[in-house]
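Researcher: Checking consistency across runs. Here is RNA polymerase sigma factor SigZ again:
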Amino acid sequence: MNNNAKDITEEFARRLKNFVYKRISSPQDAEDILQEVYYKIHKNIDELNDAGKLSAWIFQIARNAIHDYYRAHRQEEPFAKPPEPEEVRADENDNKEIAGCLKAMIDHLPDKDRAAIVLTEYKGLTQKELGELLGLSYSGAKSRVQRAQQKLKKMLGECCSLELDRRGNIIAYKLKAKTNPFCNLK
C-alpha cells in the first residue's frame, strides 16, 4: 500500500491541516505536528491492513501527535494549575473558604479528570471544545467532566457537610472527621 502514500496525503491534506490547526494555536507548532503526522503515515503505511479504515487511522495518528505535543508542553500550559482560591469567588459567604479545599481536591484527582475540570470550570472551554482538544466525542467529554465533578462532590462530602442557599452558594458548613489529605479546613 506504500505506493498510494502520495495519494493519501493529497486526499487528506486539507482536512488534516484544518484538524491540526484547530487544536494548536501556534502555526509553527501546528506545521511541525503536520510534518510529524506525514512522516508517521509514510513510515507506517505498510502496517495498515484495512484500507477502509484509512481515514480513521490517519486522524488517530494526528490526535496522538497533538496529545503528545500537549503532554510535552505541559509545564508551559496556562491551565496547568487552577487559579488560587481567592480568584474563584470573593462573595461574602463561605464559598471562598471552601474554594481552598477544592484546589487541594482538584490536585488529588487523576490527570484526565483534573484536566477536564480545569479546562471547563476555570478556563471556560465548553465540553464540546474539550472533546475536540482531547480527541473525545462530545458525550465522552461530557462523561469525563461529570465523572470528575462527582469525584469532587464525593471528596467534599467526605470532608464536610454543606448548607447551600437557593443560588448554590455555601452559607454554612460543618467539618467532618479530618481524615482526608485534601481537607484543610479548621
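Researcher: Does this match what you'd expect to see?
Model: One thing to look at in this run: The chain has two domains: 2-76, 85-175.
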